[in-house]
Write a structure and sequence with these properties.
- By secondary structure, this protein is an alpha+beta fold.
- The chain has a single domain (2-126), classed as Hotdog Thioesterase (Thiol Ester Dehydrase, Chain A, Roll), CATH 3.10.129.
- The protein is 19% helix and 38% strand.
- It contains two helices and six strands; from the N terminus they run E-H-E-E-E-E-E-H.
- The chain has helices spanning 22-41, 123-126; strands at 2-8, 46-51, 54-56, 65-75, 79-88, 94-105.
- Strands 1, 2, 3, 4, 5 and 6 form a six-stranded antiparallel sheet that branches.
Length: 128
């Protein structure tokens, strides 16, 4: 699992219990999945199709730093299936896991379009 993004938990990210609001964390996960997919498929026209069961296993509080990790599980014809883990950098505990996030590649007409990718590519390899 590669961890690309860190977020600092601020007062506006908290729920009434004083812990990180789950909806905010899901927003961060969805954004990270989209950014990861855009870079992998080299196309800014990406949508979230599906997010599987989520499993909260620990919390984060104000001042904590969380890391969001993504891993490619499978390349489909027009999709990319990801796995996500978010961990608390302060406590070293996993906060949430999402086993399947399906992102879909869109063409200029806004409909799913084949992306032609079959393996993970790194930006540094594209620059050669």
């Amino acid at each position: 699992m590669r961890f690309h993004t860190r977020k600092w938990v601020k007062p506006e990210d908290l729920n009434p219990n004083g812990t990180l609001f789950g909806g905010r964390l899901l927003e961060w996960i969805d954004e990270e999945a989209a950014l990861y997919t855009i870079v992998q498929l080299d196309n800014p026209k990406i949508v979230t199709k599906y997010m599987s069961e989520i499993n909260f296993t620990s919390k984060a509080v104000k001042g904590d730093i969380v890391e969001i990790g993504m891993e490619v599980k499978a390349f489909g014809n027009s999709s990319l299936t990801l796995k996500c883990e978010v961990r608390n950098m302060m406590t070293r505990e996993t906060i949430i896991t999402v086993d399947n996030i399906i992102m879909v590649n869109l063409g200029v007409n806004g409909k799913p379009e084949a992306h032609g990718k079959t393996k993970i590519e790194y930006v540094k390899d594209r620059l050669k």
